[in-house]
Amino acid sequence: xxxxxxxxxxxxxxxxxxxxxxxxxxxxxxxxxxxxxxxxxxxxxxxxxxxxxxxxxxxxxxxxxxxxxxxxxxxxxxxxxxxxxxxxxxxxxxxxxxxxxxxxxxxxxxxxxxxxxxxxxxxxxxxxxxxxxxxxxxxxxxxxxxxxxxxxxxxxxxxxxxxxxxxxxxxxxxxxxxxxxxxxxxxxxxxxxxxxxxxxxxxxxxxxxxxxxxxxxxxxxxxxxxxxxxxxxxxxxxxxxxxxxxxxxxxxxxxxxxxxxxxxxxxxxxxxxxxxxxxxxxxxxxxxxxxxxxxxxxxxxxxxxxxxxxxxxxxxxxxxxxxxxxxxxxxxxxxxxxxxxxxxxxxxxxxxxxxxxxxxxxxxxxxxxxxxxxxx
Length: 376
Prior knowledge:
Elements: E1 4-10, H1 17-28, E2 34-40, H2 47-51, E3 56-58, H3 68-85, E4 89-93, H4 95-107, E5 113-117, H5 128-143, E6 147-150, H6 153-161, H7 179-183, H8 191-194, E7 202-207, H9 216-229, E8 233-238, H10 244-254, E9 260-264, H11 269-275, E10 278-281, H12 290-297, E11 303-305, H13 310-313, E12 321-323, H14 328-340, H15 342-355, H16 362-375
Parallel strand pairs: 1-2, 1-4, 2-3, 4-5, 5-6, 7-8, 7-10, 8-9, 10-11, 11-12
Helix pairs in contact: 1-16, 3-4, 9-10, 9-14
């Protein structure tokens, strides 16, 4: 039987949900049936590690920022790669690679074009022109796609509401994680010891790249407000990015450098979450936030903004709390409520852990991808 060649395209190899999906599909898909390879931009934290595991073709001009010259160059670079490789399926991830990769595939005459929606590129915080430009591009992208894969039900609802694609194009495949690693962490959690934090202190953690979507200034403000009146609270941000200097300046202005830690990118997320007492996310939009799923696996009941995919996994007052974006005061109240009500914290913790079943696993996600690819 001839193998199906699959070109997976993503903008940059960072430690995000989209990247984990793209790499996992290339790494774990049945190699007796499929021949996957990855196309991506350069400069990601996972570049070296990934190219040692799977076949990767780097495109130097594929960048996240809007850059007409580089965008055009990357379009023709990917076109040349696809023309040479002749894949039967092109599967794009992330907004930028999703637009450029799909256009390049269409230029090559490839019919089986799939795009996974890890949250749409447009949102209500953008200007009217910017938001509608992104909606227009998503509409064009959908027209040349055979299938759209939402990672949350909210993606489908939002897409159809904005006339992006047709209902029959949407095939829901949820993100997958290594459930066993998070639910049954075998080592002793060590982050508090590493940071010289008292084991009795409360540790509040968030995870995400330093970009506007994650709205991290709100998390830093929460750290300031709570630590002013509660000396037994410490805060951790896992991630990095171009906004780091502005965050460091904000922390300095708030005079909380001894209360909040910027850990940069880390690979021991299971250790970090199992070391934490609370998980908070102040994002303004999400696809299906993989770090929230991982936190729930570790028995943390998340306090998160009520956006997109968060609503799909968090049931308010059952396995966590949903808070309106920018409502810092309520987020602080929910954290303190869990800190002072041990019984409630334990109940929500059990519910959170039990909410993550096999359908959230990598194996299930890979199985669903194989079924979709085979149908083509």
